[in-house]
Amino acid sequence: MAVLLSGQYSLPVSREVVYAALNDPDVLRECIPGCEELEVRSDGIFAAVVRLELGPLKTRFRGKVRLEDLDPPNSYRISGEGDGGIAGFAKGGAALKLVPDDEGGTLLSYEAEANINGKIAQLGQRLITSTSKKIADRFFESLTNRLQPNPRTAESQ
User: Fold this and answer.
1) Is residue 118 part of a domain?
2) Residue 6's closest CA among 113, 107, 101?
3) What is the number of domains present in the chain?
4) What is the CA radius of gyration of the chain?
5) Is the residue at 60 inside a domain?
6) What are residue 15's phi and psi, to 5 degrees?
7) Cα–Cα distance, 55 to 128 (Å, whole number)
8) pLDDT tens for residues 60-72?
9) In this structure, how many other beta carbons lie within 10 angstroms of the beta carbon of residue 110?
């Protein structure tokens, strides 16, 4: 089953800051919902263990993601795959673009496609798409919160 997702988020900081955060394993580990482990291997691949709940299915996915077509701080592509054991397998990619907005922040947009099989695919396209969108929204909400300028820092200067 193929799942298509796209989204757009406004972040309160420059493209350079957003791009750096999206390549920082500590930031990603903190912002990815259900992330239990995340490391950057010597070959540049991000390896992760993420606990997911998709409807009645709860599973741990072990996955690998590679960043490709790097154009800092404008864009890159993500390709990867994840194995959820008996729950199923997913493989896909996403294109991510960062554009400055009129207020000094960044407009982030993405388009993603994943191919899913196994028990997860039996849950149905609508449930998988809505759950995936919620996970993406939670990730970008966490990222936005992490990147918010700290008002106390500005006051203390």
Assistant:
1) yes
2) 113
3) 1
4) 16
5) yes
6) -60, -40
7) 8
8) 999 999 999 999 9
9) 18
Amino acid at the residue 141 = E
Is residue 70 a part of any domain in this protein? Answer: yes
Asked if residue 157 is part of any domain, the answer here is no
Question: Encoding tokens for residue 28?
Answer: 């990603």
Among residues 79, 112, 77, 89, the alpha carbon closest in space to that of 4 is found at 112
Q: What would the mean pLDDT of 70-91 be, rounded to a whole number?
A: 95
Tokens 């396209």, residue located: 125
Start-to-end Cα distance in the chain: 54
Task: Determine the Cα–Cα distance for residues 97 and 37; give it in Å rounded to an integer.
Answer: 26
120's CB contacts (< 8 A; 6+ apart) are 54, 57, 84, 87, 88, 90, 128
Q: Domain containing 138: what range?
A: 2-147
CA distance 141 to 21: 13
Identity of the residue numbered 18 = V
Whether the CA torsion 111, 113, 119, 121 is positive or negative: it is positive
pLDDT at 117: 94
Q: What pTM was estimated for this model as a whole?
A: 0.88
How does strand 46-54 pair with strand 35-40? antiparallel
**CATH code: domain of residue 74:** 3.30.530.20
